[in-house]
Write a structure and sequence with these properties.
With about 290 residues, the chain is α+β, with helices and mostly antiparallel strands.
Length: about 290
């Protein structure tokens, strides 16, 4: 009798365990912390960047602090027949472009998408391995990266020039963005204009002088007065804001594309997004130094 009772208990336990094993597993989630990137999160959770983007319906690599991301695929624990080992060659990425984030390098991006550095350089017309934050890179020969992006602009549409910079101006802008990108993380220092410490206009002064454009040291108001408004900003143009710590023109940065800009904020030199409510409500205009236009 006791033996029969034990067998019944064992059978019920087995059935219950089997039933629980068949339930759908919850996908694990991760809350984005300051300093995180998709590649860092992917590495920590032993998945790929593309996995995370697919599971979270992300169109690019941009994430924000406190964002919750699924870092594992929702799966069921039903019995699955073992498959034969795959002998196929890893497929090329289905993503057509990659937006460069802090910490990226061509070799890192190439490994991330199972490509070679040479392929990425050829597809994007790169002569060197230098890339900058916010830059959009093609990930296949036939990929097209929109040249005229949708730019968030609270300025007076049509009031400025629609022309692109001259070839010399484009070269200055490119070098200036590279310099500004290398300064990300530099501490904020009121009146500072060296890599030891920078304020917003000091960043402009240092980056453009290093980029090949000799300009004097002015405040953001001063730079606003000797630059021309542009309707279609390109990487390297200026972006101005008002009513930040005082009334009127009070802050500026260097536009790097995709609605991102590099500036010296209270936390030091960083990359921000003009579509964020704080900046979008204070955006005045995109402008370009007269010597570059």
């Amino acid at each position: 009798m006791k033996k029969t009772k034990k067998l019944r208990i064992l059978a019920l336990t087995t059935i219950a365990t089997s039933f629980l094993a068949l339930q759908t597993a919850e996908a694990a989630t991760y809350t984005v912390q300051k300093g995180d990137t998709l590649s860092k999160i992917a590495t920590n959770h032993k998945v790929t960047v593309q996995d995370i983007k697919t599971w979270n319906n992300l169109k690019n690599d941009m994430i924000y602090v406190a964002q919750k991301l699924e870092v594992s695929k929702q799966t069921t624990n039903e019995t699955v027949k073992p498959s034969n080992p795959s002998t196929t060659t890893p497929s090329k990425p289905t993503t057509t472009s990659h937006t460069v984030v802090k910490g990226d390098s061509l070799s890192k991006i190439a490994n991330q998408y199972s490509l070679s550095v040479k392929e990425i350089k050829d597809w994007n017309g790169l002569a060197t391995d230098t890339i900058y934050i916010g830059q959009v890179l093609k990930l296949s020969a036939g990929a097209s990266v929109p040249g005229n992006e949708t730019v968030h602009n609270n300025g007076s549409s049509g009031a400025g020039t629609s022309k692109d910079p001259t070839a010399n101006g484009q070269a200055i802008n490119k070098k200036t963005v590279e310099v500004a990108n290398s300064l990300v993380g530099t501490p904020y220092l009121y009146g500072g204009n060296t890599p030891d410490g920078l304020d917003c206009s000091g960043l402009i002064y240092y980056a453009f002088n290093q980029g090949g454009l000799k300009i004097g040291r002015h405040s953001s108001e001063g730079y606003f007065g000797n630059s021309t408004q542009v309707n279609n900003p390109v990487s390297g143009d200026l972006v101005f804001f008002e009513n930040t710590y005082k009334q009127g023109i009070s802050h500026m940065g260097i536009y790097i594309g995709n609605n991102k800009f590099i500036h010296a904020g209270a936390d030091g030199v960083e990359v921000s997004d003009v579509t964020y409510s704080y900046w979008s409500t204070r955006l005045v205009a995109y402008k370009r130094f007269d010597a570059i236009k």
